[in-house]
Design brief:
This protein is an alpha/beta fold. The chain has one domain: TIM Barrel (Alpha-Beta Barrel), CATH 3.20.20.370. Helices cover 40% and strands 14% of the residues. The chain is built from 8 helices and 8 strands, in the order H-E-H-E-H-H-E-H-E-H-E-E-H-E-H-E. The strands form 2 sheets. Strands 1, 2, 3, 6, 7 and 8 form a 6-stranded parallel sheet that branches. A two-stranded parallel sheet has the order 4-5. Strand 4, helix 6 and strand 5 form a beta-alpha-beta unit. Helix 7 runs parallel beside helix 8. The radius of gyration is 16 Å and the shape is globular. The two termini are 28 Å apart. Keywords: Hydrolase, Metal-binding. GO terms for molecular function: hydrolase activity, acting on carbon-nitrogen (but not peptide) bonds; metal ion binding. Pfam families: Polysacc_deac_1. InterPro entries: Glyco_hydro/deAcase_b/a-brl (IPR011330), NODB_dom (IPR002509), Polysacc_deacetylase_ArnD (IPR050248).
């Protein structure tokens, strides 16, 4: 079962991480995890440019290493960049020392490739131990989400993903999409319709 939105009490309990931005401002924060991936990230960039929208891309370090020009294209288009570990590791299943090395390796390849210092981190699968979180550089903001599109779950239809995503979108929402092959069958059908909805509803998109 996909939980498309975070229950309202979550941010109160887990208040050391970011679940959403200001609810009083009609801005939406689109995010794309797991890229850059040829054919998918390009597709996303084209739609965002067409709609004149901005997003934040939480990149996997190994994909930045494999596809540096695509990572540069994301930055050149004015989008935000975040750290998503080097090998997309699950914090619950990874020793703390190795997990921190994964974060650092991703930081290093982004710095080497894009010449920027990334200050946003999203744990793959949203899974991170308290002990790992406490050891992350204090200057980094841990970004979660309040709307999960479920684009990676092929058991769902694009129509259902779109409907649920629209239902739970509100001021300040952080929306999770994935620019990777597994998600592409759903993403390529629903993304433009969702962006169209945001424009029609008067939402502005911004980077985190």
């Amino acid at each position: 079962m996909i939980i498309h939105h975070i229950p309202s009490f979550f941010p109160e309990i887990f208040n050391e991480v970011t679940w959403n931005r200001d609810r009083k401002v009609n801005k939406i924060y689109l995010t794309f995890d797991d890229g850059p991936v040829p054919g998918v990230t390009d597709f996303v960039l084209e739609l965002l440019e067409k709609r004149r929208m901005k997003a934040t891309f939480f990149m996997v370090g190994d994909n930045v290493r494999k596809h540096p020009e695509l990572a540069k294209a994301v930055l050149a288009q004015g989008h935000g960049i975040g750290n998503h570990t080097f090998h997309h590791v699950n914090g619950f299943k990874t020793a703390d020392g190795l997990y921190l090395e994964e974060i650092k390796a991703c930081q290093d390849i982004i710095k080497e490739t894009l010449d920027i210092e990334v200050r946003l981190f999203r744990p793959p699968y949203g899974r991170i131990k308290k002990s790992q979180f406490k050891q992350i550089d204090a200057s980094m903001e841990l970004i979660m989400w309040d709307v999960l599109t479920g684009d990676y779950d092929q058991r769902q239809s694009p129509e259902k993903c779109l409907k649920k995503s629209i239902k739970y979108t509100q001021n300040g929402s952080v929306i999770v999409f994935h620019d990777q092959q597994k998600s592409f069958p759903i993403l390529k059908i629903m993304l433009d319709d969702y962006l169209s909805y945001l424009q029609d509803a008067g939402f502005e998109t911004a980077i985190l």
